[in-house]
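FIELD: query
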Amino acid sequence: MTIHIHRGYQLQSIFLTIGMIVLQTSNAWAQVNHPAIKKPVIASSAQQQAPIPANKICTKAAKADWLSEEEFLLLMKHRGYTIQNFKVVYESCYEVYGFDKDKRIVEAYFNPQNAKLNRQNFAAN
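FIELD: result
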């Protein structure tokens, strides 16, 4: 039994195969040689486990024991702070940017468990 394949289908199959090879090769080349494509940087375990300096730690309490963000921000408002930006830093501090009660620009770090001021920096006038 002889199977006859139409010549057009054979050529189409060959072109598809060649196209796939070219595409795979160009993608591989782009990933290796193209300067705009960044390879992922894998940090060493020493970099990932870098200890936080003692003067940057606000609390060692579990996050379940922290004041909620809403409670904390309400306390800051009652203390006269105007908060522009708020975030958790060093996995142990609440950090705020804004103005203190004297309307000075401030960056302040608080213990999230009891809202005690840890340290603050003022912008120079």
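FIELD: remark
The chain has a mean pLDDT of 78.
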